[in-house]
UniProtKB/TrEMBL annotation:
Keywords tagged on the record: ANK repeat, Repeat
Protein name: Uncharacterized protein
Domain of life: Eukaryota
ANK repeat coordinates: 68-100, 136-158, 204-236
InterPro entries assigned: Ankyrin_rpt (IPR002110), Ankyrin_rpt-contain_sf (IPR036770)
PANTHER family: ANKYRIN REPEAT PROTEIN, GH09064P
Pfam family, one: Ank
Length: 310
């Protein structure tokens, strides 16, 4: 009789991935549906993804097994599976679709997890929008600044041209959230290379400096003062020194107070020098210093809130 050929299963990984199957005669048939497409996208199983796509799966099906309602593309991007992402986009999966819980897109979740190659491909080849925010207004740049993925931050600003000061509904920008989290490398890059606005004010009246002060991020506070953030700018919690004291960040408050005294003494001596130049008859210009024990101290006892809810 005719020789029998062995047939490869439709998906070589089906046993490991627990796809249900049934037998008819000599053949095994797998029951694959749109939910399976999401499951295999998460696992990065490209062969299985291809088989299910060929079987006519709904590319926009929402995940029934978790609360986020992700599509296969979102799932593949979040888990960093570039080949799966490329395949899904090439067969016309909607690149800017949002999950149903937080409203994050595929590129948003890839940025959140720091999957640089996926973020880059989606932005440059997949034509994903880099400025679509989630339900709170958080963009891929904001979330990558928040999670400390500096390579993603640099790419989004330099190559993908993401809006560096795109803000949450609260007014918090990528610089503000990086300041809150104490991610100095990101803060420094956003200011020096990204040209982020150091003086941006949240709807609450706070700034990157006062947010950093309230969370005790001394290195960030020092850097922001070095790029001319204002210590004395008023917020609902007072200036930066008062804000640090309110949230019991005494180390930050003490350093800020010292810097403020130095600035005051510098300004005083400068003014006295001008006065001497204008009126030599008053005598030689003198050096004045404000003693530290004359600086006002405040004691507060409130509870801090996260910058994203300011």
């Amino acid at each position: 009789g005719a020789s029998k050929r062995k047939k490869r299963p439709p998906c070589a990984a089906h046993r490991a991935c627990h796809i249900p199957s049934f037998r008819v005669g000599a053949f095994n048939f797998m029951i694959m549906n749109s939910q399976d497409l999401i499951s295999f996208a998460k696992l990065g199983e490209l062969d299985c993804v291809n088989e299910i796509i060929a079987a006519g799966a709904n590319l926009e099906h929402r995940d029934e097994k978790d609360q986020y309602g992700s599509t296969a593309l979102i799932a593949g991007a979040e888990h960093g599976h570039l080949a799966v992402v490329q395949r899904l986009v090439n067969v016309k999966a909607q690149v800017n679709t949002k999950d149903t819980k937080d409203g994050g897109t595929a590129i948003y979740w890839a940025a959140c997890k720091g999957h640089f190659s996926v973020v880059k491909w989606l932005a440059m080849e997949g034509k994903a929008s880099v400025d679509i925010g989630n339900n709170n207004g958080s963009t891929p740049l904001f979330i990558s600044a928040q999670t400390g993925h500096i390579d993603v931050v640099k790419f989004l600003v330099n190559q993908a041209k993401a809006h560096v000061d795109a803000a949450l509904k609260t007014g918090a920008t990528p610089l503000v959230i990086a300041s809150e989290k104490g991610i100095l490398e990101t803060v420094r890059w956003l200011v020096t290379e990204g040209r982020a606005n150091v003086s941006t004010t949240l709807k609450s009246g706070h700034t990157a400096l006062t947010i950093a002060a309230s969370f005790g991020q001394l290195d960030v506070v020092k850097y922001l003062i070095g790029v001319n953030a204002s210590i004395m700018a008023e917020t609902p919690d007072g200036n930066a020194i008062e804000t640090a004291l309110k949230y019991h960040k005494t180390k930050v408050a003490k350093w800020l107070a010292g810097e403020n005294i130095k600035a005051a003494n510098k300004a005083l001596n400068r003014d006295m020098g001008f006065l001497h130049m204008l009126h030599p008859s008053i005598g030689e210009a003198m050096t004045y210093e404000i003693p530290e024990d004359k600086f006002p101290k405040k004691n507060h006892a409130e509870t801090k809130t996260d910058a994203q809810t300011q």
